[in-house]
Model the fold of this input.
Amino acid sequence: MAIVQGAEQVKTSIRAVLKAPHLAAFLPATMIFAYWYGGESLMVLVAILFPGLLAIGGAVTRPATASPRKIDTVTGLPKRDKLLEHLDRGFAPEAAFEKSCLVLEIDDFEKLSQQLGRAGIEHICRAVSDRLRSALRESDLICSLGAGRFGLSIDKRQRADLEATLQLAARLQATVSEPISLDQTRVLLSSCIGFALPGRAPEASGDALLAAAESALSVATQAGPGSIRAYSNGMVPRVGRVEHNREALLRALDEGQIAPWFQPQVCVKTGRLTGCEALARWQHPTMGLIAPGAFLPAIAKAGLLERLGEVVLYGALSALRDWDREGLTVPTVAINVSAEELNNPCLSDKIRWELDRFDIAPSRLVVEILEDVITQTKDDIAIHNVNALAEIGCKIDLDDFGTGNAAIASIARFNVHRIKVDRSFVTHIDSDADQQNMFSAILTIANQLKVGTVAEGVETHAEHAMLVKLGCDHAQGYSIAKPMPAAAIPDWALGRDQNQATRQDISKLA
Done:
């Protein structure tokens, strides 16, 4: 890399000499000297050769144009190779400034891609790249790393320490979070950022610095939407997107590496625990906790969604039984059912059999079905399964409400118990009047249809407070609790009860 950079610098220097204005002044003098020394014939020869040599020199020293393969066709940004080259310069002895590396990733990018389609997600990526470019200095660099991920090389100037980089990351997140207009609608985004300072890189190279920033990003995405993390020596040197093969996925499912974790749902007004949602998590023996976005697409691709559903159902009912034995009241547990599972004629019978085996009332099992699955399915088997589950007493939640095209008639047709309002309608609801109006409209529909509401992705206490004001029924999100293993739920519930009791005592004294 250094050799290539040196060659480019030599070419640039030669080209600067060839393009200098004073060089052209030598042409008349050279021709007079040629005429004096060799007569008219030599003068004509020099008149031909001199411009030709300049043209050849210019062509040889012309800067290399970027290959189309090295430019992202959607955003027009350079790709990973350019970022590595830029970061490498910061480690050169003659470098004026060291380089810090930040990697920003749009939260829930795969889900957004499915919701918005190809044209929509490309519009989003272009808008985000333009905003990030406008937020940086001319000496900084932004590159596309694909799939809603951007890499940034930042000059580490004086006082650009950890605190300053954290502030920069927060400013970049704020830039990304501004509403984006798309087909007369507004899209609100959040993002995670991982960054690495040059002094923390495992090696003095651009590749090591980028790997460190990506490792920090992996930790940030596991912490939840909108998180920022700095690289530290305890992190895995490189964490990238890993393509898991079918054999490894099957082994993980069979050995209990992939199992349900549980995110509490609470009554918005009282704070009382009303249920838990079972969410698949992979605790890898060597790689640690793998984010769902890194393995769920691989499971779908491998045709293992039904097997995953069996693992989650078994784990959810086992947890419910164990909580009952410990005296912990968890009214319901929710599982997600995919379109592939709904098309299995035996699904409703299989769930009924599992409920009987664990001696759990069907009313305590909530089956979550994506809005798009209900609106797009024309399969009699899927319709039969949903209705059969409702008939035996299971509750049906319509997931990600507001992101698809569900007709109001579909909600009544499938005997929906609650609608789960997608987090895109919850983000910034405390400060955005348009968000409040949209959410109020959804609550009005739910009230008219006599179905409950659950707000997903509640990340701040201010958002929670606004949900109370608007009249939402239930909420779940990181401001309440992160997903956790089943064994951790009792301690969490006890701690929450104690905190609520303390707050009540304080209010009485006040």
